[in-house]
Write a structure and sequence with these properties.
Layout lengths: L4 E2 H7 L5 H9 L3 E3 L2 E2 L6 E2 L5 E3 L2 E3 L6 E6 L28 E2 L8 E7 L2 H8 L7 E8 L4 H9 L13 E6 L3 E8 L6 H8 L3 E10 L2 E2 L9 E3 L2 H9 L4
Helix pairs in contact: 1-2
Bound molecules: uracil.
The site of uracil has 8 residues, from helix 5.
C-alpha cells in the first residue's frame, strides 16, 4: 500500500465488513491503530500502522490473485441478472474490486484468473502482447493435419484480418476428436469459430493454460486457490511468446 487510506475504506477493502459496518465499529471503539482506539473513520492509515478490530490484527493486501477452475454454467462477469458469476464462487474470499482476467464462454471450463490488479490484467489481455492461451477441446468429426496446417497459416473467421498463426496438436482424430490448441489472441468465441471455419463443431472446451500458467490439476470445476508468488511472477514477466 503506497498511498494512505481512510481507516473505514482500508477495513472494507480487506473484506472485514461493509463500509457502513466498518464505520460503525470504528465509532464504537472496536478498532485500534497502533494500540490506541481510533474513533474517526476518516483517519488516514498506511502500511506501517498496526490495526486491530476486536483485538484481531488486520494486515493489508493491496492485490489478490486467484486461479479458478471455471465450471460450465457460470458467466465470466462481476455481476449478472440471470446467471451465477465466477466471483460468486469465491464466497467470503470475494473482494469488491475483483474481476476475471478476460472471459470464457458460459459453457467453457478451465483456467480463469481472478484479481484486482488492473495493470496485470491489461498486460495479459492486450492484443499487442500476444499472450498464449492453451485450450483442450473435443470436436465432432475427424480433426486432420490439413486443419492443423490451416490454423498454422492463420485462418479467417470472418473478421478484417485472419487469426494469428495457432498451434493445433491432435491427441485423437476420430468421430469425436481431442485436441490441444494454442492461440495468441482472444477474439470472441475464437476457438469455436476457428473450428467452424474448417466445418467442425466444438462440443467441449476447457482452457488449460494462459501466460505460462497451467491450470492446477487438483482443482475440480468450481474450485479455486490463491496463486503462489512464483506463479504471480510468471504472469508478470510473461509478455507473450
Ligand atoms: N474460445 C471460445 O470459443 N470460447 C471460449 O470460451 C474461449 C475461447
Amino acid at each position: 500500500m503506497n498511498e494512505r487510506l481512510r481507516l473505514d475504506k482500508y477495513l472494507s477493502d480487506m473484506n472485514i465488513g461493509t463500509r457502513s459496518e466498518t464505520k460503525a465499529w470504528i465509532r464504537q471503539g472496536k478498532v485500534t491503530v497502533n494500540s490506541e482506539p481510533c474513533l474517526k473513520p476518516e483517519t488516514k492509515v498506511g502500511p506501517d500502522d498496526e490495526i486491530t478490530v476486536n483485538g484481531q490484527k488486520i494486515s493489508y493486501e493491496k492485490y489478490v490473485y486467484y486461479m479458478l477452475n471455471k465450471p460450465a454454467g457460470v458467466v465470466s462477469a462481476t455481476e449478472d441478472k440471470r446467471f451465477r458469476t465466477v466471483l460468486d464462487l469465491l464466497g467470503t474470499d470475494r473482494r469488491k474490486d475483483m474481476f476475471p482476467v478476460g472471459r470464457l464462454d458460459r459453457d467453457t471450463e478451465g483456467l480463469l484468473i481472478l484479481t484486482n490488479d488492473g495493470d496485470l490484467a491489461h498486460r495479459l489481455l492486450s492484443p499487442k502482447n500476444e499472450v498464449e492461451k492453451v485450450y483442450y477441446a473435443r470436436v465432432k468429426g475427424k480433426v486432420t493435419r490439413e486443419d492443423a496446417d490451416a490454423f498454422r497459416a492463420g485462418i479467417s473467421i470472418g473478421e478484417d484480418k485472419p487469426c494469428l498463426p495457432a498451434r493445433l496438436d491432435i491427441i485423437i482424430s476420430d468421430d469425436v476428436s481431442e485436441i490441444n490448441l494454442t492461440i495468441y489472441e482472444g477474439k470472441y468465441h475464437q476457438v469455436k469459430r476457428m473450428f467452424g471455419a474448417v466445418g467442425k463443431e466444438v462440443i467441449y472446451l476447457k482452457r488449460i493454460a494462459m501466460g505460462g500458467l497451467a491450470l492446477d490439476p487438483l482443482l475440480k470445476p468450481g474450485e479455486y486457490r490463491r496463486l503462489t508468488k512464483e506463479e504471480i511472477n510468471i504472469l508478470n514477466t510473461r509478455r507473450g511468446s
